Amino acid sequence: MDSYTDFALVYDTFMDETPYSEWADYISSLIHKYGISKPVTDDINSDKSDNDLQDVSDKLSQERDMVVELGCGTGSFAEEMAARGYDIMGIDNSEQMLQIAINKRDKSGHDIMYLEQDMREFELFCTAGTFLSVCDSVNYLTDPLDVVKMLKLVNNYLYPEGIIIFDFNTVHKYRDIIGDTTIAEDREDCAFIWDNWYDDDTFINEYDLTIFVHEEDDRYRKFSETHFQRGYTLDEMMDIVEKSGMQFVKAIDADTHKDPDSDSQRIYIIARKNTENNTEVVED
Questions:
Q1: What is the pLDDT of residues 20-41, one digit of tens each?
Q2: What domains does the chain contain, in order, with CATH numbers?
Q3: CA 250 – CA 271 distance, rounded (Å)
Q4: Which residues is 268 bridged to in the sheet?
Q5: pLDDT of 80-103, one tens digit each?
Q6: Fewer C-beta neighbours within 10 Å, C or N terminus of the chain?
Q7: The pTM is what?
């Protein structure tokens, strides 16, 4: 899971065409349709009572409306959700990515809490009504049992009737679309070479990044990172959701917003908290 160290410094530069705003609009519509969390408005709790029952109700409402993003990276998506009124928390295991996210928060003034934690072992101080994970963060869990483990934790921390919405890149995308390719891109202040390999036996996609960053003295600093992601099929991911004890709700093609098919490259999964079936993960 160690990744996005030096690359964090230029991540936003190379992701500047990512449609975070469109994603946030669509994810918000899914939360509205399938979830329980609501955007927090200024007048919520404005007429507070000293009554203990009212205090309990306020606390439960806060937990119901809490949104937690797993693998939040540099906070671009969290910022979009906060701008739409959601009370959002971001979790990521990269200190470098989180520092950039914190800088964005300081600039925007949004009230976003960030935690440096592994999505397979995160700990929260309360329940949350919605969990999110976008931009193929789940594909970094290259062992299916780790996805089960993550979803079991989500199930434990979800508010009753709460949901998780996450996306994943499919085997089709890694094998047939990006496959064994090399991508190079040159920007004003930095450039990168992306060498990609896919192993059809393990479903593991490896990409080696070589980045050149323009320094102030008109020289370039070179650094490299290697990333591993695993492709999943829809059937495999649905089986993982079942093993986690969560209730599968819906699968959606992330590009067409229709039912997934064999050509789907990225798929949204919506799953709901299940209080009746919370089986333990059995490791081989």
A1: 999 999 999 999 999 999 998 6
A2: 8-169+232-272 (3.40.50.150), 173-230 (2.20.25.110)
A3: 7
A4: 167, 252
A5: 999 999 999 999 999 999 999 999
A6: C
A7: 0.89
